[in-house]
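Work Package 3 (structural annotation) set out to generate three-dimensional models for the target panel prioritized at the project kickoff. During this period the team completed the workflow that converts sequence records into discrete structure tokens, so that structures can be stored uniformly alongside our sequence database. As a representative example, we reproduce one entry of 158 residues exactly as it appears in the project archive.
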Amino acid sequence: MATFRLPNVLNEVIHAHKNEFIRPTKPKNGVGAFVFPCRKLVFNYCERSGSSKSMMEYLQKEAIQFSRNNPQIEVVVQPRPSKHPIIRAFYTNGHQKTKCVRKCTADEIPEVVKSLRDHSGHKLLKWNRYVISDTPSVRGIYSPFHVKEVHSITDLKN
């Protein structure tokens, strides 16, 4: 059985430009394992203010269970004197999102935490924009008035 050997010139080119041919992959969804978009949650509260009362109640009762259920997310609790309580989420794409929870009850804070955890980190965009194209459609603009025959559901059943 014959073995295939590269010519010496091609071998030298490959070794000289090895870094150009072999590039490390960035962690993305769909390549290997699932990468969770939220990487870190920071809970800031004031120990003396009344607006942080529900946040402290959440931290004492439910925050430990949340951190056990989500080991992929780093959970940080920091006191923030004389400020309203906030929850700050950091995402893998470099963005961050902050929610103030001063008027939330202890029952509403888990919903805020869940929404920050499930958010992708991308900015919200309006999807109802018109499509502008340099090349017009081959078929033209669709209109139901261009159809010669009108079909109904009763015609398809027969």
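The radius of gyration is 28 Å.
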